[in-house]
Amino acid sequence: MGKIKNREKPGPDNHVEKTTDAKAENTRDKEELEIRLQRLENLHNQGSDNIYKYLFFITLAVLLVALTYPKLEHFLKTKDAENVDVKRITVDNVQTVNNEIHKRNEIDDTGEYFGRTDEDDDGDEHRDSVLQRNVTEAKETTIIKEENVFHRKSHVSIEALSAEKNKKLETDVKASIKKTEDTERGAHVSKKNGDLMIDEDDGMISLDDDINEVSYKENNEGDRTEKVILHELPIKMDGVDDGKGTNDDAEEVKLTRKTLVDDTQKVEGKEGDKESKTLGKAEKKTKDSIGKSKKTTNKGKKQKKEDNDKDVEGNLADKELPEEIRNFKASYQRELTPKKIFADGRRIPPMELLAQKEHNSSVRVWLFEEFLSNEECEGLIRVHDRHVQELSKDNPILCFDSIATLRKHLKNVKIQINVSPRDFTQGTTCVNASFSGQLQDWLKGNWSYSTAFYPGESRFAAVFEDRVKQATGLMPENGGKFQITSYPTGIGYKSHTDCTENVLDERDRVATILVYLDTIEEGGGGETDFPELGIWARPRKGRAIVWNNMSPGGLCEPLSVHSANKVIKGRKVILQRWYYYKSFFSLGKRPPEPPLPVRVPNTPRVSCDEYENGSCRWYDEWNFEHLIEYERRKYTLV
Ligand SMILES: O=C(O)CCC(=O)C(=O)O
Ligand SMILES: [Fe+2]
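Structure tokens predicted for Fe2OG dioxygenase domain-containing protein (638 residues):
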């Protein structure tokens, strides 16, 4: 080593010694070289030995794979699914993942959507029983509550009535609520009866100013007194005489249990489709146009004793809430985490649709090809169509966010007719049944159709929400209803955000998943357009798009604005589900149907907000959005 050192560092002091010993040094160098070569050879031999070892182990592993393939395959898939595999693409470059395997899904036209089974021809009955089940599950035999919509903390309501109670109350209410219509477009009239707090005032419903309750009942069961509040609606009714007279030989309205049960009421925040930046305005307009001539009577004193249980804001005190609401733990969904998944043999990677415009929002749009199989798409369409057809036997009730909107719609179809607030059912934004019938003759076809099903009402719902969870990270417990919407030719949907701008509410829609259930060829319209991002997606059978509407901090992102382009050729059908930033108790539970406007069971509704082509939608279910007082107060909930 010393020499090497010397050679490395030659210096005047050792130069002579080096020259003299040159020979010996050479010999030593050679020896050293040989030793090194030997070492290298050894190493090489060792390496070969290792290769044999590796080969042995690989063979062993292959054998193991062959033996345990099914398990391993599953493992690999799971692993693979965990790796984010994102192809960054633009809309012009959307790639399709090949899919040879289309496994038959459980869904077919006799599937369990809307709570049906094969044997169950009567979907409505079954739907009632689904609702009943929810209610019963929610709280065994007991009671109460509503006021939910005003409650500070729960933001929910629950009405938990046992089946027997429901039945009894149904009979009571059936006997007590009557509807009259005048010959023209008269208002509906409900009458009071017995202990129900429905008061009659010149043939119109009128309520205590600060009660906001339509009906109320007390039950005595053994030594326990239970209060059952039905239809505790956030409505203030007007005693406005419509001047058109009423028909006192009222036809009885058959109200089913469904219309009586008020179980979970915060309804899923927004209509789902339209509430957007314009809400504040719309609400004001509604109030101005419909609620101007309010005259409220002072009846229904029974409510007074409820007040003791309420805090200053008129909310039910916490102790009044069922335990399960009090114990409800909200979960937060702050962002999307797209991942590649496998479903029924299909490999489904996420692809990001890159914004074509510069923007500084958090909004990102992802696309999955063949997220649903052909069979799933076709099954959903069949179920939707059948449901729309069944409910179309009755004319829908039409609701408008304001009288101005109604006027604009009429103008659009060139109908010259004077409309006044009296054409609306009091306390609601809906016109009465007979006028709705006329209107629908004029406006018919000018809307899209939405049907909904809820978690637990279909096997598909569970399959779907799980797939969504794997692919996007969106948690089922933060998801609302599943909504299928069809757009006939000529119909689109106006520009909107799915969250509500300028309103701080964590119970808002953080993300949307939308699946196209059928293909529209190029040029056929129907694209989902994100104008602020410069991107759009074309309807293609099975394709899903998913995007966030809110920032991870919980703010509604205005740049998530989107619209459904008008369908030019064919028909568009989609499945949508909205996920909420903060979950709440009634999320994902079928809401009770509010009793107003008075209508026959299963009457669909059409809701139109702010006039714009494509602002009307037909719905198979009711929520509370058309109730003026609900509309007024919904954002004051904490
Ligand atoms: O149909 C579409 O493409 C979009 C529908 C939509 O955004 C909605 O219903 O909220
Ligand atoms: Fe939307």
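The radius of gyration is 34 Å.
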